[in-house]
Specification:
There is one protein chain. This protein is an alpha+beta fold and 358 residues long. Helix content is 22%, strand content 27%. Helix 7 runs antiparallel to helix 8. The protein is elongated and about 115 Å long. It starts with 13 loop residues before the first strand and ends in a 57-residue tail after the last helix.
């Protein structure tokens, strides 16, 4: 296996950008292009093939376009999509900083406490105090969030970078991504939904409208995103995470178990287990209860419940070893009526279904 430079970042190739705004030419050729906010996503890339695939997927017309501060032409499409399905790569895909840009590039990059280029305390805070973020972007840094996602509907393996300078989007993105990282440890892909949400804020008596890009896990249930790393198949098809109905455990063969019993008490215990499992009527009116009672009656009569043999009842009237004949004594009060469904002599009251026994 080959070796790697340990201090070098290992990241997928950037195939293009996902934007929430676009520029149009200024009527004055000596002035910069005019920036416009978009209600739909804008896809741009150096590759016309990628942008054409995005247009086929989400609508729009492919056009040549040159970003500000560069002379290198690219391709872009202003799609009709207000929502895009994407996949977060493993690791931490979010990068955030307060930044200030000028014609010479990024002049400041701060984490909110220390300006990274000069290693000084936050310059904006030192100059303008706690409310520095309310000042014009020309005076102070702007919260800049960059998140890398994969677009499974487009060609090739790589990432697309979404960049936003919205304070509200920065907060929402960081919170959502941190929850995902806590759940997966950054060890797996995570399907997400991205959409442009229009927000309104009133500040100093002035109402401002602005778009916020929302990025949330795209899973059937919240617990799917919090239950650990996902498989590659689940990331590509979140619908596979839908809970499937539980497979019911095989129902015991209570009749077969009762036929193995040697005593009425054992047969009665079989009914109690069926009752606790909800497989018989507590009142004992169901066929299974009646069959179990009949087995208990047979056991008490000495019938082999497995074979149906009645023992030595027809032994020709022969006495036993002590000279005693096994006969049935019929009293004067006997009658020809059949026994009740649950005669107490066969099924004690405490075990009679519906009699309160457990």
């Amino acid at each position: 296996m080959g070796s790697r430079i340990l201090t070098m970042k290992r990241q997928a190739a950037e195939l293009g950008r996902i934007r929430t705004g676009y520029s149009v030419p200024n009527s004055d050729p000596n002035k910069r292009p005019i920036m416009k906010r978009s209600k739909t996503f804008v896809i741009s890339s150096h590759s016309e093939q990628y942008v054409a695939a995005a247009a086929a997927q989400w609508g729009g017309t492919v056009e040549r376009w040159t970003p500000q501060n560069t002379k290198i032409p690219q391709f872009r499409v202003i799609t009709a999509a207000t929502e895009i399905r994407a996949i977060l790569p493993a690791g931490d895909p979010l990068s955030q900083a307060y930044e200030m840009w000028s014609g010479g590039g990024c002049s400041r990059r701060c984490d909110g406490e220390t300006e990274q280029k000069t290693r000084q305390p936050c310059i904006c805070l030192a100059q303008f105090g706690e409310d520095w973020h309310t000042r014009s972007p020309k005076q102070v840094c702007r919260p800049t969030s960059r998140i890398n996602v994969m677009l499974p509907e487009l060609p090739d393996l790589g990432v697309w970078r979404l960049e936003t300078k919205s304070h509200y989007a920065a907060d929402a993105m960081a919170g959502g991504i941190d929850i995902v990282l806590q759940a997966t440890g950054g060890e797996s892909l995570m399907p997400v939904r991205m959409w442009i949400e229009q927000r309104t804020v009133v500040r100093d008596g002035e109402t401002k409208n602005f778009p916020v890009v929302m990025v949330v896990p795209s899973i059937p249930k919240l617990r799917h995103a919090l239950s650990g790393p996902l498989s590659m198949a689940a990331a590509l098809d979140p619908s596979s995470l839908v809970d499937r109905p539980a497979i019911e455990a095989p129902r015991p063969d209570y009749v077969a178990e009762a036929r193995q019993c040697k005593t009425v008490a054992d047969a009665r215990a079989v009914w109690h287990r069926a009752n606790r499992a909800g497989h018989v009527d507590p009142k004992g009116t169901d066929p299974l209860s009646q069959e179990l009672v009949q087995i208990a009656q047979d056991i008490e009569k000495g019938v082999d419940t497995r074979t149906g043999d009645v023992g030595d009842q027809d032994g020709g009237g022969q006495p036993d070893g002590d000279g005693v004949y096994d006969v049935e004594v019929v009293g004067e009060d006997s009658d020809d009526e059949p026994p009740t469904a649950y005669p107490s002599a066969v099924w004690p009251d405490v075990a009679t279904p519906g009699g309160g026994g457990r």
